């Protein structure tokens, strides 16, 4: 009986892969998201479903965390809404100093966007709309916040992920090298650049690089932006190379600043582990240095880093407004900064919601990764 | 540790090299300054002597400050990053001639004015077309105004010009090519009011009929397919990449040909790159990636230095139309003034004139805008036909000694020897001057003015504050004493109807008065109607002349300086005849700019 039951469970689990293909087809052909997003969404959904068989514990954990997200989002929206209400003026204040606009018309603009209502009515109206999937309408851009965010989200994610990959790809090996060569010249020079990266403000480094490129007449790197003017006429390969070329400066700027602290963390973790007794034991047993470092020490040293990765994943969408501004990168950070400066309350609140959701989901992903990597941690 | 020191020295060397380069650049400026004789050395002054014959072709790339347009809909377009683009898409019945700034016919072929001077009848040019090839008729004006612009639910800035003194103009279609506009009274702004953009009613009419005019507020927004936007101007939008650029191409149906019979515009493609940082804009221009840049005073030295190497020319276009002034609150309902001796000080004309003597325009030009600026004396821009030439001589020059004498003459002297002046009742003369924080030019002006005031014993405290807080004081709480602020100007001051008459909401010293409190305000109100409720140009010039005189003499506010508008244009471009005013600026000549 027990055996039979297990058979059914295994059978079902493998069978679900057929559903994947069907779901892909459905989303790609019926949905309006594009093939990449459709397949991504389908896979997330299917793997969550498969967790029913693989690890019900994990599924319960994920669902609980997602439910916890709701009060967090509402609280953050309330705080964001409140703070903007406290700030003087609104999106139409600037207009009131233009002699060619009638005050009656400005009053009408305010009324149409509900800004003449008291703050609590505005707030609950917003929450009510948000619960129905309407994240508001930008006062200045005159378009739904969701549309505006999705126009730019991909650009910010591309930049964030590239710089994240750059930072992690370099800082882990750098941290290991620095720890293994503590206090000799390799360690010193890595530390020097790490502190240099920490000390120099991002926007300033961005401008410095722009200035150097402009002054030296080095035309292989563009002066900001994400694409060349001729981008639409290029072949697909040229388009990819064009974007890659534009990515270099922003990715280096953001990457180096993240790398700085990550390298220092990694070096510290590694040093601590290398002094543990089990590492000494492994060495005493005559294991090769490579095995000691990469099999025993590294895997343990990397665990604390994954928590940091969670926070960074959450920040992927928020971007780096100042760097985006200097380098004219068409990302979300710029959009949000502009919305803040113009007191575009619905745009700001809408982007806060996206930010919070990503932060919570990022942390969740980090927790899951941690559970996968570290055998000591079990979901409970 | 040794390596660290070596690295440090390498860094030193690199920065030393950078400084050495800087020093070389300075020498080049000196040589150039001796060569060219112009208003500003090394900068070409524009002479508006007529269009050159151009030839078709070319791509013109410029940057637009900020994150790009907020809409592609000309109805709701409000700020410059939007109108920079939407204004290229439409042409009105009339426009100002680029050389003379006089009104000329654009889409209209001719006009007649009725005997009572209240009705203007326009005849359209034949065979006008929208950019989708559909015919453009008188209905595209009349219905646009009656059904859309005048509908109170439509978010448009065009309504104000269509409602002089708050009364709507009456638009009527006589036949396919003829329309008439009737004003509620004899009005000088006839052309101003009727220069509104026509709308493609063959597309918008069904929407208005089905969903109401308010539905147009969100129409043709940034989420639209830009090729569906229909206009009748020199350009149409070809593509838009959010946060990056908009590409405009020539509209094949544009009505205008040049004097030699060549279809305008000359350029094939017009690219707006959205760059949210002025330093990056400058670096892009210096790298040759942009064909145009508006220079600020602090950037000019660098521009002069690099112009021959990069291949561009600097042009001085004239004083900026926008004004900067220090206004003196005289509102008895102001919490800052009511029941304090301050109200008496600011109400004293001699005191206000003494303050006017403290505005050191020359130092402001020299230090704040690096010499690239002009002193300003009148509320009307210098290039306007209504500007009074006598303003500079009539205005109060910078003269602290004279200011001291005037304060002495009204008994505002230092009675107790503490270095500060007191009024005859012994109250220390102390006022707050505010401006919006973050505007470097205004902050420097305010600091200079308050220093000069303190030197003659007036305790003027300068405090920049948040823009919206300041606007709140100015327009609703009236809780302020002195404010340094600016307004945009235009060729015809008629657009200042809510600024200069005492009933205006931007008549800052005491807005929204039911009847003028001060005798000179009553006179300005009278003159405003005299100058604007007429079609006689001479009457207008006379009316504005006296208004400017009163404004200078009574010092409701005192003007400071206008920055010089300095343009950098790539050397390969011709027909560079911009004016420093919206509607006739660098963008308004793009239909004539050509690649040499």
Care to give the gist of this entry?
The complex is a heterodimer of chains A (380) and B (596). Chain A is an all-alpha fold.
By DSSP, the count of extended strands of chain A is 0
Parts with pLDDT < 50 across at least 5 consecutive residues of chain A: none
Secondary structural class of chain B: alpha+beta
Total strand count of chain B, please? 22
The residue-averaged pLDDT of chain A reads 82
**DSSP helix fraction of chain A:** over 70%
Q: Explain this structure to me?
A:
The complex is a heterodimer of chains A (380) and B (596). Chain A contains 15 helices and no strands. With 380 residues, chain A is an all-alpha fold. In chain A, helix 8 packs across helix 9, helix 10 runs antiparallel to helix 11 and helix 12 packs antiparallel against helix 15. The longest helix of chain A is centred in the C-terminal third of the chain and has 39 residues. The mean pLDDT of chain A is 82. In chain B, the strands form 6 sheets. In chain B, strands 1, 12, 13, 15 and 20 form a 5-stranded mixed sheet that branches. Chain B has a 5-stranded mixed sheet with strand order 17-16-18-14-19, sandwiched between helices. With 596 residues, chain B is an alpha+beta fold. Chain B has a domain of 241 residues: Dipeptide-binding Protein, domain 3, CATH 3.10.105.10. The longest helix of chain B has 34 residues. Chain B is built from 17 helices and 22 strands. Chain B starts with a helix and ends with a strand. The chains are: A mainly alpha (380), B alpha+beta (596). The interface between A and B is large, with 61 and 69 residues.
